[in-house]
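Late entry, S-adenosylmethionine complex.
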Amino acid sequence: MPTPARLSRVKEVLSRRQPDLTVLLENVSKPHNFSAILRSADAVGVFEAHAVHPTGGVPTHHHTAAGTERWVYLRVHPDVETAIQHLKDRGFSVYATRLSREAVDFREVDYTRPVAILLGSEKWGVSEEAARLADGSLVIPMLGMAQSLNVSVAAAVILFEAQRQRLAAGMYDRPRLDPETYQRVLFEWLYPELARELRAKGEPYPELDEEGRPKWTST
Ligand code: SAM
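Prediction complete; structure with ligand written out below:
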């Protein structure tokens, strides 16, 4: 059973999760970059992140993310077209981050709307295909000698601008997840192993009482 402090911390964080703000990582291949992006995503309240990777898996690096993989759901898509379509079907505008002339300054975007930030690979950037499918392109102006930022730095800069806008709009002041998702995720965060076992057996999660204890009903 969680301690009262643990329960209240988990509830607090969950009530600040933003289901309509996300990142899509296209072939970000270095584990420390991948994990650092998830860590920033956690800090701004991203509920679920998205990725495509040639290996079909994800290159996370537990140390850099400080275990945040557990708090940010990650959905891996087979290819970038499927990923972008999935996001668009769910009402997201997808913005590619690119060092191109058509890209707008990242501060000009309204991040209080459903937004997915598409980040590209360390070497090649966002693919032409993904950029074509996206709703627009963003750039962080570079005024020095370096042409680009590290991908995890670029992600953090944009995500924290989104956080700034959402704080100003009061979007962290009340739970944004629907009650059913909130309850499901609360159970998964408090009891990850039990949740895994129940899912494997195809059984529903029990309700939780005020103190975060499962209310088992006998059948
Ligand atoms: N040669 C690559 C290119 O031309 O896109 C550089 C890739 S950069 C190291 C890796 C990723 O970081 C990019 O795909 C983009 O997602 C993000 N990024 C880096 N600097 C950026 C900037 N100034 N504006 C927007 N995105 C940036």
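The first strand starts at residue 21 and ends at 26. Will revisit in the morning.
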